[in-house]
Amino acid sequence: METLLWIVHVIVAVTLVGVILMQPGQAGGMGTAFGGGGSQTVFGSQGSTGFLGKLTAALGALFFLTSLALAILAKGGDESLMEQPGQPAQEQQQQAPAPPTGGSETPAIPGTAPGQRSGGN
């Protein structure tokens, strides 16, 4: 099922690119609006804008649907991302050392005795 969906998705993507490239530029509509070159068009005297525009919209919608279906299939589709606990955060909490439990002792300075302060004598 997923392989068939991938094949359809790629075919739709390539066809969509081709249809977009076949559309006339912005200035292409000016010549056909005044009757110039209307008899030489492949899609009739009204031009190709209507047909290619509708085909582009249909292929775009199909591309969106196949993309959405592939994303759901890749994830599994049975759980929400909001309901899953974050794996990296849990691993960091397990690896972090526990803070020392005790009173308000100040940390010892290396090279000094526990009750002795370093500094100017």
Structure description:
This protein is an all-alpha fold and 121 residues long. It contains four helices and no strands. The longest helix has 27 residues. The radius of gyration is 34 Å and the shape is elongated.
Order of helix and strand elements from N to C terminus: HHHH
Continuous helix count: 4
What value does the Rg take, in angstroms? 34 Å
Low-confidence stretches: none
Largest sheet: none
What is the overall shape?
elongated
The helicity comes to 40-55%
Counted beta strands: 0
Task: Tell me the structural class.
Answer: mainly alpha
Q: Bin the strand percentage.
A: under 5%
Average pLDDT metric: 74
This entry's quaternary arrangement is: single chain
What's the SSE blueprint?
Blueprint: H1 2-22, H2 28-33, H3 49-75, H4 87-95
Helix pairs in contact: 1-3
Keywords:
121 residues, mainly alpha, 4 helices
Quick structural gist:
By secondary structure, the protein is mainly α. It is 52% helix and 0% strand.
